[in-house]
Protein: Protein RTA1
Amino acid sequence: MDSAPAGSSEAAFDFQLYRYTPSLAAAVVSVIVFAALTVLHTWRLWKAKAFYFTAFTVGGVFQTIGYAGRIWSHYDKFSIGGFIIQAILILVAPALYAASIYMILGRLIRTVKAEHLSLVPVRWVTRIFVTGDVVAFGLQAGGGGIQAAGTLEMYEMGEKIIIAGLLVQIFVFGFFVITSVLFHVRLLKSPTDTAITGGIPWRRYLSVLYVTSIIILVRSIFRVVEYLQGNSGYLISHELFLYLFDALLMALVMAVFSVCVARSGRAVVPVSEERLYANTPMKPSPWKMVRTRHGNHWIPPTTPTPDPGTVSGISHTSFADTPNFDIQDLALLHHWTISTSVDIYKTPGADSLWQRTLPQIGFQYPFVAHAILSLAALHLAHMEGSPSSPYVVEATRHHEIALVGFHECVNNLTRENSEALLAWSFLNLLYVFSISKQLSHATELSSPRLRKDRLLGVEWIPMVRGIDAVLGPQYDFLREGRMAGALSLGNWHELNLENHASDAVDQELCRLRDAWRSSSDAEVYDEALHIMRKCLMYAKQFDTMDEETLAQWGFNRAWAGPMAFIHFAPQQYFTLLHQRQPHSLILFAYFGAFLHMLDDYWFLEGWGRDIVGAVDELLGSYWQPWICWPIQTVGLDAAGNP
Structure:
């Protein structure tokens, strides 16, 4: 077949499909690389159930077939068939990569619950950018199809359409990068609670978006210059530039996503309202459900979620490797030793758990050490009294490092490291309570729902209950170790409400039975009420306990009462609480009142009052008579104001 489409003799002389013989070796290597990356990416997406990334996989298939077309052209460089296959498929594949990249941003914004920080309304993020990408894809594919018409005139027309498509792609990508950077800056200034405590590697995802977006932008600019130079231009006349600025860059994009995103695709699937408040106890997909004899429990997400293809790349002892600490970290450890550790229990005999035992564990397991330093930094921020304290930033930095070790520890749980996991869980609970107060004001002003979710324990309650399910098999080992005192509730199992003289507060609690007497869930509420009364009985005994008995008691004293309710109350109750059922909220208001009794503990300051206030807002005036006692106890008036 002739080397040029039909047209004038001069045009036929000037135009060529290729101005070189396509390299067989380069094409074969490209086919192998893109085929391997596509298979790897497909397998990992299947394992992560991240099917929204299908367009990315199709892009890999296009690249593979496109470079197979160049193998055809090596043997027959005058064949229009091989030329069109490689020209169109290699050209449009990056548009499919871009579509998947755009989807990540919208999902990430929802996952960290930062919709209010997005430049573009989050419901429009994916629509706007993917629509722009479809336009770019259509123009490039259409231009490539027109070039196959067989005339020089049509080839040049198709060339102009392709350039227009590439310019649209560059414009959309540029706007996308601006949107991502602005969201990143805003999230750094006003991080949401989920971004801080949810275990979501959002910084890594945004970094991946930046890197891949810049790579695709460079490739698109190269293509624009190439087409502007025309069929006889320097770039299109030298095959090296195609492999350097297209094949290599696009293979790099696929490699980055296969390593950094595909292995944890679940982490960017947002929480849906239907799942969160459904009748069955559900949590977002990154959370793991552990079945025990006491029921189903959820544990925090192991981010990144490893699969058989990636876990082998993680050292099973990496969470115990020796890290690098600096002089500022030493200052935080000093503050922990002389101040933070003795300001938690505020009891000399019990402070040894925080002052000596936990640091000893931290010296063995650096992720526990980072958790200690994060809490010390938050204690300093609390003492400063400024929500913009630099210690808050320092605390979040250490916490993020600690999270990585925690996730590895969960995935490789043994008897030996179970003690470290328990220590980290205690520290993390205090971190969640204290960091929420530091960050809540700015993030919750524009989203009241975030505040109610935080106060009603949408995230921290499953965290408290879930860790017990994980460590349950190691309980016998733990109760013989250094943390044994923290696991004992003393005479909890011996407490008997029947032999207890009911006081005014207990009578107030018993009165609640009338609120749900006709409810189909009355049995669940009765069981939860029984646990709450027992928790109050447990806490009150320390008011009259003699010094000798108190000296022999373990670490858990009055402060353990409210948390015991979270631990022992039935799961069905917390499901009803997630659904915001009025009777569950009434009982939780009393929990808030009991928590308020611990208001002088710095990490719980304000929590009890805020819980009662949130419940009062949700229930309204109709149910308010049932929560008069909690309202009065925390110091709110009838309108819910302090």
Remarks:
- The mean pLDDT is 79.
- The two ends are 88 Å apart (CA to CA).
- Residues 143 and 158 are 4 Å apart (CA to CA).
- The domain at 18-270 is CATH 1.20.1070.10 (Rhopdopsin 7-helix transmembrane proteins).
